[in-house]
Specification:
- The protein is built from ten helices and 15 strands.
- The protein is α+β, with helices and mostly antiparallel strands.
- The protein has three domains: 99 residues, Rossmann fold, CATH 3.40.50; 64 residues, ATP-grasp fold, A domain (Dna Ligase, domain 1), CATH 3.30.1490.20; 124 residues, D-amino Acid Aminotransferase, Chain A, domain 1 (2-Layer Sandwich), CATH 3.30.470.20.
- The two termini are 15 Å apart.
Length: 342
């Protein structure tokens, strides 16, 4: 019997190999199509195949996906990044019917816009830092008057690596950060009140807004500091933190993976910052404390109703690979215990 095949639409994210290894252990064949600026030779061994495509913002990207999909009978297609998620849900290609999860486009557009997500969360009772739009020539000056320094300059879109987030301490730094984000994204950035405190994350697998699995942690080290991906974490089952994120997921009736970023302020409140509506970079940390995301995921693939198991141990320190940023996908990065058959 031929193993079912899954296609990941990726951009060289490290968590892609973790997820590929998990699904291979569940009996799947996994193809990874990574959108990169410089093509690499394909790799194929046993249950894993790695290929490259043009960057997701180029016209040729969707043509490359069309070609790959035509050559393989994929049961599911899973976007692994914000850019590939946008492509999979905005373009009416025949293969988009196989994309997991299938979400309402308006909901996806909301969650991929960091400013709108914060405004939506606040309207549903989730505590968020104050925001300011850059309205007119005086928008920055008014925000500085209201918030002071440090001040956070953010792009409405990002990829979880801190590229479009800057913490500034002067008017000149703010103007420079605003200009850089405008040039990089062609979108208008916004300003957020800086919250001084330790960062946290909450992630899970959801179906129609209800959690099937959860994981939460304090981020004890980031690279780069303050704005970069997590390098070290300490698991936490703080009820207020978990409840805050579940409130947001319930409000959007989300199905699939999602992870939220938080910071704990000086009064002990968890302030919501943004959400990644897809698999995220520190998923491997959850596995290290026994959270199994992939058994219920496979059950969802089969049309079953998984049992919710929301407990996980608190207070566990977890070190992740220092290279949490994008790097060329290689089977050498597979989690330990993964056998690539063949």
């Amino acid at each position: 019997m031929t193993a079912p095949r899954i296609l990941f639409l990726d951009e060289d994210h490290p968590h892609t190999l973790h997820m590929a290894g998990a699904l291979i252990r569940h009996g799947y064949q996994v193809d990874i199509l990574s959108a990169v600026a410089h093509p690499r030779r394909p790799y194929h061994r046993g249950s894993l195949r790695v290929m490259t495509a043009p960057p997701a913002y180029e016209r040729q990207y969707l043509d490359a996906v069309d070609t790959i999909v035509e050559s393989g009978s994929y049961q599911h297609i899973i976007p692994m990044s914000d850019a590939t998620l946008r492509c999979a849900h905005r373009e009416g290609r025949p293969w988009t019917r196989r994309v997991f999860p299938r979400v309402v486009r308006d909901c996806l557009e909301l969650l991929l816009d960091k400013r709108r997500t914060c405004e939506f969360a606040s309207a549903h009772g989730v505590f968020t830092p104050a925001l300011r739009h850059l309205d007119g020539a005086g928008g920055l000056s008014r925000a500085i008057h209201d918030f002071g320094f440090p001040l956070v300059v953010k792009g409405v879109a990002g990829e979880g690596s801190g590229v479009n987030v800057s913490i500034v301490c002067s008017f000149a730094e703010a103007e420079e950060a605003i200009g850089a984000i405008r040039r990089r994204t062609t979108q208008e950035p916004y300003l957020q009140q800086y919250v001084n405190g330790p960062p946290y994350l909450v992630g899970g697998l959801f179906v129609n807004g209800a959690p099937l699995r959860l994981f939460a942690a304090e981020i004890t080290q980031q690279s780069p500091d303050k704005t970069g991906p997590a390098v070290r974490l300490r698991s936490t089952s703080d009820a207020e933190l978990v409840e805050s994120f579940c409130t947001l997921m319930k409000a959007v009736e989300w199905t699939g993976f999602a992870q939220g970023d938080y910071v704990r302020d000086e009064r002990g409140r968890f302030a919501f910052l943004e959400v990644n509506p897809r698999p995220w970079g520190s998923m491997a940390a959850a596995a290290r404390v026994g959270v199994d995301f992939f058994t219920p995921l496979v059950q969802l693939f089969h049309g079953e109703t998984p049992e919710a198991r929301l407990d996980f141990p608190s207070g566990r320190d977890i070190a992740l690979a220092a290279g949490s940023r994008r790097c060329p996908i290689s089977p050498r990065g597979m989690p330990s215990g993964t056998r690539i058959r063949g």
